[in-house]
Design a protein that fits this description.
Layout (H helix, E strand, L loop, with lengths): L2 H23 L1 H8 L2 E4 L6 E3 L3 E4 L1 H5 L3 H16 L11 H19 L19 H10 L28 H24 L9 H8 L5 H4 L1 H4 L19 H4 L6 E7 L6 H17 L4 E7 L3 E7 L17 H8 L6 E7 L14 E5 L13 E4 L4
Parallel strand pairs: 1-3, 4-5, 4-7, 7-8, 8-9
Antiparallel strand pairs: 2-3, 5-6
Helix pairs in contact: 1-2, 1-4, 2-4, 2-7, 4-5, 5-6
Length: 381
């Protein structure tokens, strides 16, 4: 047997042994790994994935302990199964890779007995968030960036000249369906083995299942709760703005509250006000009342699409109760509330009588901890 064949054979045995260890200790992750094709390559220094297949340098693999090798394999499997290559979109590739590494390494360290290779990227403050949230937070704070990081999210197989921009819609659809089946199978196997889906994946899986629409379009779900029957309305026209005719003559009032507490940064405040302007441009015929709120509620300010935005008022602690107290003093029939915040504050004990949409900053309070309303993330492409 030639040296090259012996090396390939040894690599295959090492991968098989790793898969057996994953199966014995973590049925959920082992099932995901079975959906990945794992190949040796000398074109990479360590390991990488293009979202479908995984490549590992055998020389690097041999330097690792069994627990570290298992962690390396699982790291790449999670990148693929969680669609980190496809979800990057137009974001900066290396920064996106940093964010994705932080998330998957956090999952491995919290949810499995396996180890990471030396030098693996960790950030315990960020790793419980979704990759999209981590990316935005890294953009704002350069001190959190590592001095160097190996890019293991590839646009195409090693040595290929293809790029992600050339990935056609059909292949994207196939990859999404393929890994969705893998995740469903993994959940089933874990359940059959009397296990559970790893809790640390909840935010990432929620991101996969979220509607791929700007949150302002998500607001449409609240607007159609008015008495008018919109059942027959074709929502494919949303992107063309034709839904405005459907709201013609409707009396829908939106109470918008912007968190102006001291925990909200200047960049977040700018993003909040930009989103408020987006509401007015998207739904110019709505009655929109703006409040600023820290420990008190300031307003309301009646907003118009072509009028300047009132200067923010606040800077103190965070208390959500004053805003909802003010809203209850108003006529709330056919109304909705939109609260832009990081989510860290005091909630009212009584549920409001009006539908509430919380628009939460990256790194903000986990959606499960909001006592009422629906939540969506303020994530910018």
């Amino acid at each position: 047997m030639s040296d090259s064949k012996r090396e390939s054979f040894d690599f295959e045995r090492a991968v098989s042994a790793s898969l057996l260890r994953l199966r014995a200790k973590t049925p959920f992750f082992a099932t995901l790994a079975l959906f990945a094709r794992i190949e040796p390559t000398q074109r990479l220094d360590t390991a990488a994935t293009d979202g479908r297949d995984i490549w590992i340098n055998p020389d690097f693999w041999r330097q690792l302990s069994p627990a570290q090798a298992d962690g390396l394999l699982l790291h790449e499997v999670l990148h693929a199964a969680l669609l980190h290559v496809l979800r990057r979109g137009t974001r900066e590739p290396l920064l996106w890779n940093f964010a994705a590494d932080i998330v998957v390494n956090g999952v491995i360290c919290r949810e499995t007995p396996f180890l990471l290779p030396p030098g693996a990227l960790r950030d315990t403050q960020l790793e419980s968030l979704s990759v999209e949230e981590v990316y935005e937070l890294l953009q704002r704070d350069a001190s959190k960036l590592p001095p160097l990081c190996i890019c293991d999210l590839l646009d195409a197989p090693p040595g290929s000249e293809a790029n992600l921009d050339g990935l056609d819609a059909e292949r994207r659809r196939v990859l999404e369906a393929y890994w969705r089946q893998a995740r469903e199978q993994a959940i089933f196997i874990a359940s059959a083995a009397r296990g559970e889906m790893p809790a640390g994946l909840a935010r990432e899986l929620g991101q996969l299942n979220a509607a791929r629409l700007p949150w302002r379009d998500y607001l449409w779900r609240f607007l159609v709760h008015t008495p008018t029957d919109f059942v027959e309305f074709d929502r494919r026209f949303l992107a063309q703005g034709l839904y405005l005719e459907a709201l013609e003559g409707e009396s829908v009032r939106v109470f918008v509250c912007v968190d102006t507490s001291g925990s909200v940064s200047g960049a977040q405040m700018t993003a909040f006000l930009s989103e408020v302007g987006g509401i007015l441009r998207a739904y110019p015929q709505l009655e929109c009342d703006l409040f600023y709120a820290d420990a008190q509620a300031h307003g309301p300010f009646r907003l118009h699409p072509d009028a300047p935005m009132p200067q923010p008022i606040g800077g103190g602690g965070t208390d959500f109760r004053p805003f909802f107290e003010r809203v209850t003093e108003e006529e709330t029939r056919d109304s909705v509330c939109v609260y832009l915040t990081d989510g860290y504050g005091t909630f009212p004990s009584a549920l409001p009588d009006v539908p509430v949409l919380w628009v939460v900053t990256p790194g903000g309070l986990d959606p499960s901890r909001f006592p009422f309303g629906e939540t969506t993330r303020l994530l910018l492409d």
